[in-house]
Inverse folding.
């Protein structure tokens, strides 16, 4: 995974990273560049350097760090643009909290890897921007989308948000705020940040998570009214282990107990409802059954970690077997033995059905993190 990114993703002529590469290594040079891809590459290679001390990984992290602020940082209003063109500036200048979270996540990890103060200061600056503009102090949680100058749009008409929501809030934003603030708290033990992280963990457990089904509610209104009955098994199992991680970083023993208990319930629900008997985590469902049979790369990675986490909590070998089965599916269907990295996903019959290897969304974050977590 790391070798592929080192060799194929950097745009040596224009800087940054190519916006799209297909399975045959063909580059779409005019594809939009996304702050999400750059932030995730920053996290990935910072984490890899912190563990393995390979100077090539540090060089790649520095490349991503430079790209994030040269290309995506809004010098006038602060925060990260969603996307830019390869050469001529912003394409989508919205301030989407999802990508701000990944900026914080990557910057905190770069500081962890290097000890340098500047990336930590920039992570704190981004955190303060999010708190100033996106924190809902009335109903708690965070709004998910703003204009360039940080004005919230309360009436988007029929247009969905970048996360797919018709409401003002989503599980996806809160899930990745959880991991971002957890990583920042590791290196910056600020009491305000700690309070914010406790709130995020609480709203995820009490408002976003359905206590009867142990599935995350995907889209919600400002007052937490549910706007979707869709189930995302990948997000569920990812949340299960990230909740435990955040509780452990917070050092709250009661929260750790609650998080571990809920993680096992989520793992049970995912295992019984979301894992195909033929292998792999299915894409999506609703109360009537499975709605998306396509098996994307990232839920498989998160399942391998999430099920192993449930095994560590309980000692029940069914979760260990589920983790191993997830890894078996990955090695059989997703790893590209010819050109490197993982395929984006496969259909239910195991055939590769997407040509995309790298995009704004397809990146080395979920799978490299899963590998490092599983090794650890």
């Amino acid at each position: 995974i790391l070798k592929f990114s080192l060799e194929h993703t950097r745009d040596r002529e224009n800087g940054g990273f190519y916006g799209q590469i297909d399975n045959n290594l063909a580059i779409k040079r005019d594809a939009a560049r996304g702050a999400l891809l750059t932030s995730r590459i920053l996290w990935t290679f910072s984490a890899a350097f912190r563990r393995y001390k390979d100077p090539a990984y540090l060089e790649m992290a520095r490349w991503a760090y430079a790209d994030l602020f040269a290309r995506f940082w809004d010098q006038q209003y602060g925060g990260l643009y969603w996307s830019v063109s390869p050469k001529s500036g912003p394409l989508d200048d919205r301030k989407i909290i999802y990508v701000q979270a990944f900026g914080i996540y990557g910057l905190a990890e770069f500081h962890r890897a290097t000890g340098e103060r500047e990336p930590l200061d920039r992570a704190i600056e981004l955190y303060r921007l999010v708190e100033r503009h996106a924190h809902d102090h009335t109903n708690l949680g965070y709004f998910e989308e703003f204009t360039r100058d940080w004005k919230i749009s309360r009436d988007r008409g029929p247009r969905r948000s970048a996360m797919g929501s018709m409401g003002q809030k989503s599980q996806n934003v809160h899930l990745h705020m959880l991991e971002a603030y957890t990583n920042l708290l590791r290196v910056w033990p600020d009491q305000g940040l700690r309070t914010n992280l406790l709130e995020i963990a609480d709203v995820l457990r009490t408002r976003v998570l359905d206590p009867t089904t142990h599935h995350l509610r995907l889209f919600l209104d400002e007052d937490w009214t549910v706007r979707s009955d869709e189930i995302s098994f990948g997000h569920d199992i990812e949340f299960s282990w990230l909740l435990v991680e955040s509780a452990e970083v917070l050092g709250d023993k009661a929260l750790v107990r609650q998080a571990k208990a809920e993680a096992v319930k989520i793992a049970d629900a995912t295992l019984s409802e979301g894992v195909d008997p033929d292998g792999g985590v299915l894409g999506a469902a609703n109360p009537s059954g499975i709605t998306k049979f396509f098996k994307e790369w990232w839920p498989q990675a998160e399942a391998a970690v999430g099920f192993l986490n449930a095994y560590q909590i309980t000692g029940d070998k069914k979760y260990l077997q589920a983790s191993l089965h997830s890894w078996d599916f990955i090695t059989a269907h997703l790893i590209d033995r010819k050109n490197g990295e993982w395929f984006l996903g496969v259909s239910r019959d195991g055939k590769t059905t997407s040509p995309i290897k790298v995009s704004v969304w397809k990146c080395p974050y979920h799978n490299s993190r899963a590998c490092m977590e599983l090794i650890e």
Q: What stands out?
A: DSSP finds twelve helices and 13 strands in the chain. The radius of gyration is 19 Å. Residues 253-273 form the longest helix (21 residues).
